[in-house]
Design a protein that fits this description.
The chain is of the alpha/beta class and about 300 residues long. The chain is built from 9 helices and 10 strands. Strands 5-2-1-3-4-9-8-7-6-10 form a 10-stranded mixed sheet, sandwiched between helices. A hairpin with a 3-residue loop joins strand 7 (about 270-275) and strand 8. Helix 1 packs parallel to helix 3 and helix 4 (about 90-115) packs antiparallel against helix 6. The longest helix has 26 residues, at about 90-115. The chain is globular. The mean pLDDT is about 95. It binds glutathione. Glutathione binds near residues 13, 14, 52 and 264.
Amino acid sequence: MAELILHHYDFSNYSEKVRVALGYKSLDWSSVIVPPVTPKPDLTALTGGYRRAPVLQIGADIYCDTRLILRELERRHPLPSLYSPGQHGFANAVAAWAEGPLFRSVMLYAWGTNHDLMPPELFEDRARMRGLPVPSVKSVERVAARSAPLVRTQMSLIEDMLADGRPWICGPNVTVADLAIFHAMWFLTDRSSRLAHEFNRFELLRQWMSRVKGFGHGRPRSMSAGEALEIARASLPSDPRTSLRQPEDPKLGSRVEVRAADYARDAIVGTLTFVDDDELAVGIHNDRVGDVVVHFPRIGFELREER
Ligand SMILES: N[C@@H](CCC(=O)N[C@@H](CS)C(=O)NCC(=O)O)C(=O)O
């Protein structure tokens, strides 16, 4: 079975979501650490310009965005499952809230509280990524203070989800909702314990957090970016599955642009090789990696013909 290579960095919460999934499924994987800020020349050689973390590489197939990375892990390693029938739609809706309003408040509160512990270039990089002015320390602290009540309100919603004694967010089975809420909550105390007191009131949430932590991270071994690029160059992309085009989609084989719908909207330009309800894939080529196929989830990404 082809090796799983995760490109990620330590304080990336979305990377933590995938590390926990690798632990839940008890998998061996190779760990390539990417810089938390641009430039990221090795990563973008593989992805055609996508800069976000994490990215999963399997040979010459590159999977972007945790929504698709988890699906691909499930396709290749179905058990234990993260997609129990009958819970998937609900789990997705919960995950959208957790990675939207919940994580936004947590991020603003945690970064504003821990700004002195973050790499100094981080605030400038993220402002540039979003096309916003670089915030002052004072404004970062003010926004943190405004976000704190929103974090508490939403933590009490999680406590309520667990109030009937269920082990996992959607009931008896672990789903993507558990991983999505977990990585948002993890971010609150990952850099320091300054906000640990926020968990005091939430007994069920604390117990659930330790159950998820118990999955661990699987079995990583470290790998250099150079080695990962060499593996891509020496591999062929896997044969595309049968596509399921919607009438509005560009034709297979046409030149297309894919970009994230929210932030870091750099276009990835390539040849459309596959589409279905959940996934888009484009073939790209460059001297460092040869031919690779970059895969994106459909939700959260825009697909159009090259302009
Ligand atoms: N929807 C994406 C979000 C990924 C994301 O925003 N990751 C953050 C790090 S946790 C990021 O890439 N920030 C900018 C960067 O690292 O360059 C996913 O699920 O993978």
